[in-house]
């Protein structure tokens, strides 16, 4: 089934630990995105990638890093998790940048204690 | 900087009644506008989008939205809601090129039997 998969579905993490959220898409989309969703704030862009091998910073990039070694995968890493990174994280992709529809994964619920 | 405001955090509507969700945006150029729906525990699904042309846009699930440039608004409507329309709805604005989609804070819709 075509779409975006994210793993894990949920995770409880101790502060200071390193964590990588995985995202894979099979639609051969060029652009991929990471958002965090917090109550009342909607979705905020963390990092994005226009194409394999390139990445860029979004609205709230601090404390997060990404890589885009190939078209399909776009992992998000928290090098040293803090409680303020407790959130629901969504990965998305689009066929190209700009005005094309973004398709979203099911999300990862992360709790940092 | 672009921004999106959804003034209503919660809306409760009776099944079969009409629904209107408000969205106001701030953007310096011609905006690209989107409405997404998020069912509980799910990712976001695109309802409809406006890029240009007819200012009344039809989407999936019987939704429509009207772009009003003079009011900087892109309100979502449905003539008769179904219990399955209970969800959170997000308005988003994007530029004509580039990656940044800016989301509103969301409106949660509850449907009474």
Strand content of chain A: over 45%
- What's the SSE pattern of chain B? EEEEEEEEEEEE
Rounded to an integer in angstroms, the radius of gyration calculated over CA atoms of chain A is 13 Å
Number of helices of chain B: 0
Number of strands of chain B: 12
Distance between the termini of chain B: 41 Å
Unreliable residue runs of chain A: none
- The termini of chain A sit apart by 35 Å
How many β strands of chain A by DSSP?
Answer: 11
How much helicity do the residues of chain B have?
under 10%
Write down the overall geometry of chain B.
globular
User: What's the average pLDDT of chain B?
Assistant: 91
Write a structural description:
The complex is a heterodimer of chains A (113) and B (113). With 113 residues, chain A is an all-beta fold. In chain A, 0% of the residues lie in helices and 48% in strands. Chain A has no helices and eleven strands. Chain A has strands at residues 4-7, 10-13, 19-25, 31-38, 42-49, 56-57, 64-66, 76-78, 87-94, 103-104, 108-112. In chain A, the strands form two sheets. In chain A, strands 2, 4, 5, 6, 9, 10 and 11 form a seven-stranded mixed beta sheet that branches. Chain A has a four-stranded antiparallel beta sheet with strand order 1-3-8-7, with no helix packed on it. In chain A, a hairpin with an 8-residue loop joins strand 9 and strand 10. The model of chain A has no long low-confidence stretch (mean pLDDT 92). The radius of gyration of chain B is 13 Å and the shape is globular. Chain B is mainly beta and 113 residues long. Chain B contains no helices and twelve strands. In chain B, a hairpin with a 5-residue loop joins strand 7 (56-58) and strand 8 (64-68). In chain B, strands 2, 5, 6, 10, 11 and 12 form a six-stranded mixed beta sheet that branches. A four-stranded antiparallel beta sheet of chain B has the order 3-9-8-7, with no helix packed on it. A two-stranded antiparallel ribbon of chain B has the order 1-4. Chain B starts with a strand and ends with a strand. Chain B is 0% helix and 51% strand. Chains A and B meet through strand 4, strand 5 and strand 10 of A and strand 5, strand 6 and strand 10 of B.
């Amino acid at each position: 089934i075509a779409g975006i998969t994210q793993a894990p579905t949920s995770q409880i993490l101790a502060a200071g630990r390193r964590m990588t959220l995985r995202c894979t898409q099979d639609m051969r989309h060029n652009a991929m995105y990471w958002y965090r969703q917090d109550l009342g704030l909607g979705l905020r862009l963390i990092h994005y990638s226009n194409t394999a091998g390139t990445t860029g910073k979004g609205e709230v990039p601090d404390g997060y890093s990404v890589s885009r070694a190939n078209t399909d995968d776009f992992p998000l890493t928290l090098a040293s998790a803090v409680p303020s990174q407790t959130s629901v994280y969504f990965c998305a992709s689009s066929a190209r940048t700009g005005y094309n529809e973004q398709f979203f994964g099911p999300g990862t619920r992360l709790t940092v204690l | 900087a672009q921004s999106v405001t959804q003034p209503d955090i919660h809306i409760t509507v009776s099944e079969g009644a009409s629904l209107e969700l408000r969205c106001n945006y701030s953007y310096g150029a011609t905006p690209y506008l989107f409405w997404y729906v998020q069912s509980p525990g799910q990712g976001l699904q695109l309802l409809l989008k406006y890029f240009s042309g007819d200012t009344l846009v039809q989407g999936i699930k019987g939704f429509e939205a009207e772009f009003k440039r003079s009011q900087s608004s892109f309100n979502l409507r449905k003539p008769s809601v179904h219990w399955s329309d209970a969800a959170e709805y997000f308005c988003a604005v994007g530029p004509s090129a580039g990656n940044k989609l800016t989301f509103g804070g969301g409106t949660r819709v509850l449907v009474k039997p």
